[in-house]
Design a protein that fits this description.
Elements lengths: L8 E5 L3 H12 L3 E6 L12 E4 L5 H9 L3 E4 L6 H8 L8 H7 L2 H10 L7 E4 L2 H11 L3 E5 L9 E4 L5 H7 L5 E5 L3 E11 L5 E12 L2 E7 L5 H17 L4 E10 L4 E7 L9 H4 L4 H10 L12 E7 L10 H5 L4 E5 L10 E8 L3 H15 L4
Parallel strand pairs: 1-2, 1-4, 2-3
Antiparallel strand pairs: 5-8, 6-7, 6-8, 9-10, 9-12, 10-11, 11-14, 12-13, 14-16, 15-16
This protein binds adenosine monophosphate.
Amino acid sequence: MNTLLPGATIGVLGSGQLGRMFAMAARRMGYLVHTFSPETDTPTGQVADVEVTASYDDLAAVREFASRVEVVTFESENVPAATVEAIAGIVPVRPDGAALYTTQHRLREKTFLERAGIPVTPFRHVRTLAELSDALKTIGCPAVLKTAGFGYDGKGQRLIKTLAEGADAHASLAGQEAILEAFVDFEREVSVVCARGADGQVAHYGVVENAHERHILDCTIAPARVSGEVAREAVELATSLLEQLSLVGVLCVEFFLARDGKLFVNELAPRPHNSGHFTIDACATSQFEQQVRAVCGLSLGATEQLRPAAMANLLGDLWQDGEPDWRAACAFPNVKLHLYGKHEARPGRKMGHLTALAPTADEALSLVRAARAALTRRA
Ligand code: AMP
């Protein structure tokens, strides 16, 4: 594929906030963006040049979309393989269908990681109740049952504390394939966002620290408060995965850091990630610009972090008592507001985020939390 220069048209599968921030980076650089998803008036569609609304299974619509763009990328790995195949027959898809296929299914992803010699938490494949009972005996309790496909933000996940809870947990799967995973009593969660260009060039944003609430990312602290050794190992593991997946684009690798200092890979995302949102305000090149550069065949940009930062998600819960007080958050001069244009604020739904910049990561975290608290402090 030739390098695509500004003026070219990029297609994005999916239409959420990741596509929106990608489209903003692409349009800033002079590219045109078409988005494809089953929805309309979407976070991505609002800022794209063209919003196509059709089902991923409508392959005629998918081909029509592909015929109007020069490369296709995605903002979610939950896209059917047949859709990607149909596109790949017309224009390149970056990252390619193989990377997507591996990472969109927990069992395939874990099996790939295990074979690649990457440390993962012990797991078993579970279909029947008998398999679950066996798995609970070998893995032990507590354990986490996760549906194998199409899960995110803790959806399709269930903590099993005792063997007796097995039958109930299995029933909740409603026939879906799953994996049972050992529960990790981690010290903290960290992630590495990295990128690989079409020429094999690799770049990374170092290790960041992630705090979750109800299985949903709450805050990211960049850089992570971990030892140099842990940071080096996490970056080495993440960048080796870029090579092993031959991925062209952005990859996020999420880890559990155990109390004894060992790292386990929890999950891969072959696209920009919520834990990399701080890069928009804090780094020389954002993760979204990096995705644009990689999928268009340009050189990657510098990943240097210009200031310590912390990001806090704004979930729909903040709207419970009415519109948040934007003026109060904007009164913090070193806090940046990002809203995704979603019309309905549901509990747990990611509506936007704040990023704070400060002399240290700890100060940035206090600042971003204070700014978020100010949003709902009523007079
Ligand atoms: P996931 O969708 O697998 O990334 O899970 C979302 C969040 O749930 C993780 O970031 C953890 O906070 C928690 N979680 C998932 N799996 C485990 C596990 N095996 N042990 C402990 N916590 C987990």
